[in-house]
Amino acid sequence: MTVGLFIPCYVDQFYPNAAIATLELLEKLGVEVVYPSRQTCCGQPMANSGFEHLTKKSNNLFIENFRGFDYIVAPSGSCVLHMKDHLHSGKYPNETEAMRGKVYELTEFLTDVLKVDKLKARFPHKVGLHQSCHGQRGLKLAQMSELVAPAFSKPEQLLSMVDGLELIELTRKDECCGFGGTFCVAEEAVSVKMGKDRVMDHLQHEAAYITGADMSCLMHMEGILRRQKSNVKVVHIAEILNAQEI
Amino acid sequence: MSSRDSILAAVARNQPEHIPLPEIPAFFSGETDVLEKFTSVAVSIGSKVFRVKDLEEVKQVLLKEYSGARRIVSAFPELADIGEVYIAPATDPHTLANVDLAVLPAQLGVAENGALWVTDVQLPMRVLPFICQYLALVVPQKNIVPLMQQAYDVIGAQEYGFGTFIAGPSKTADIEQSLVLGAHGARTLSVFLLE
Amino acid sequence: MKETKDHAALAEAFNADEPRVNWHDETLWFIRQKRDKAAHTVADWELLRETASQIKHNVLSNLHDYLLQFEANAKANGIIVHWAADAAEHNRIVHEILQKHGVKQMVKSKSMLTEECHLNDYLSEHGVEVIDSDLGERIVQLAKEPPSHIVLPCIHKKKEEIGDLFHEHLGTPAGMADPQVLTEAARQHLRETFLTRRAALTGVNFAIAETGEFVICTNEGNADMGAHLADVHIACMGIEKIIPERKHLGVFLRLLARSATGQPITTYSSHFKKPREGHELHLVLVDNGRSIQLGREDFRNSLKCIRCGACMNTCPVYRRSGGHSYHAAISGPIGAILAPNLDMKKNADLPFASTLCGSCSNVCPVKIDIHDQLYKWRQVIVKEGYADTKKTLGMKAMTQAFASPTTFQLAGKAGRWFMRHVPFAVSNKMNPWYKQREMPAPPKESFGEWYLKNRKKKNE
Q: Considering only residues 114 to 173 of chain B, which have any Cβ-Cβ distance to chain C shorter than 8 Å?
């Protein structure tokens, strides 16, 4: 099995450790991983801003980078959802359908494809899990609080395999953090307020770390935490699942 | 073209291809004791519920509960000794503004939401259950159904000019979500489940 | 002035008072929680939603025939049916009915359609006084404001502010802010209104094609008090409010109040089939853009809406920006997908007032794909040229930059490229990101660089 590693642009640029952890974790689990070096951005920021018609080139680039792999895995629910929902190509019309089905967010790849049931990881801290909306409501990584349906959570399932980790309960377990792509600057006031409220929920429940499957939400919350001079840190879930802290 | 015709033409032009009407599935009710369920839901929405043997017992409860009521109107000849039992059809509904207590029959009740079905076939005046200060509805116990679905099965193609489900006293929470009973309609609802 | 401000600006103004935002958010979240609790009492809630959704799909696909069927049955019942192509015609029809009866004062229960048509303003310009009888609507009417929520019109107002309004207009004691006392004062004041008005206008929640009857749901009993006391009852409805058969109420009435407020059903669900003996019952069927929306394949499902307001209560943006920030009669997520149909230019900002979190679609009792429609409206608005020029240029530049892997990789030190090309990633005071958030600290190398050093050679 060969996996093409799909690293969101901002993760590449600002959070290489999340990408390294994803790579190492997959390798530890016996997967052959290749990172196609010509990747840039999946086009989501443009598309969500109403400019989906400008994403033709990034779609083609994505296909050129990732065709030929058995799976495409990314440490981001949001970018994965975008490719699953909106990958189109006039240039490669026959390849988009199959590629959409091969794109996986990291945690769902671990639980659903690799069927991971144990991990050699240790992270002895109080951790709050932020359920990013696109992963949760889009990819259904966890049951949504609005629905009358049985509970499940793929990220929680994985976190429960980590030695020493104490997962905190939140008052609002799947409220949006307010990042929302360009929403974070176009609607700055509400975006920040949503972020502050989300962070507060984690702080009130004494989280030492806030984790999640989407670095973009974490980047937004980190920006708020750091402005508040808080000691609470954000960490991508891959880094916890790959952690070897003593 | 009249607006009617232009609207209809636009709708015909723009509506999507026919999508079939679904069958309504048999929804899950799961209630073993509908009277129990009705009572607990009705109480939770502010109604008072009494299980009674007959109208005589209804009368006794009303006399105790509403001892201050001056004008009482009912649709039951059996209650003639506590209030008016006849409102002439030509009556100006405004003259009912001073009714304290109205005692009316309900055809059926719904366990899942504590609602009672009342129509103008039984109502002396449409406004009566709304304009009275206090309302009492009497329903046979055997006419309590689990869900709205069954309620509409019973109602079927029933003929009426006006019908209403009444669930509890009139209420509002418009001011800061604080629940206040007695908005514009009846301040209380007493439900009598008749054996 | 208000007209020219967009959602972001109005939301920013709302956020100037953070404790108030907290209060607003908590109040609406409380209702969302009540909704969750009520939904969980129905074991097959999701099946119920699905059924309602399918019925509504059928309605939209057969609306022409259902309208004719409804009209014929309503007429046979003695209801006088009118058709209004737009808001202006709707207002004119209502006014003509009032003129015919020499009515100068009317009582009105909740009708978002009349808000959409700005009926109150129209009638007042024509010398007709309208008193709104829903408590929340009466409060915003006294405050000379539009409702901020379709179910909870004055949810943005604190009880002290309502106390002040009532002190001024209804003579309650100064400083009195007890909801019980204020509600009682409104009851007395509006009872007088009900008893003296000869015309009553109401909205419509559902109209049944099979029987020609219509249903109005209220908790207060105000629609009934108005309609059963007045000589003339005028009911106004959008053409999408039709449902096929009476038995379908057994589906919709189970969903409506649970979704709206968490109640198992509204206190009153009144079925109006025939006029009262010797009185007139008018029904106005209003299009006002609905038939156009019906033709928009991506957006027609917005017409399934039963106006429960659940999408507003759950919306993390609505809760923190307030209903008035949407500057449209219907606010929140549903308003944001309805309003661009009526005026794309004026409402071009609304589909962007969302993080696309998707909670709205999940609570919607008729399963409208609200957040997907928000995404699709964004595409339409940009294509139609209603996005602002600065944004368009920025997006084009960003797209260009991303399309070239070489410039992306050769940008040098990690983060630098990004900070040049991506709108939020600039550390200066002019940048909205930086106003209340720190920038991520650029690492010493990007993942691409790390990979080249640590894996690439190994792999090749």
A: 114-115, 125-127, 130-131, 147-149, 151-153, 155, 157, 160-173
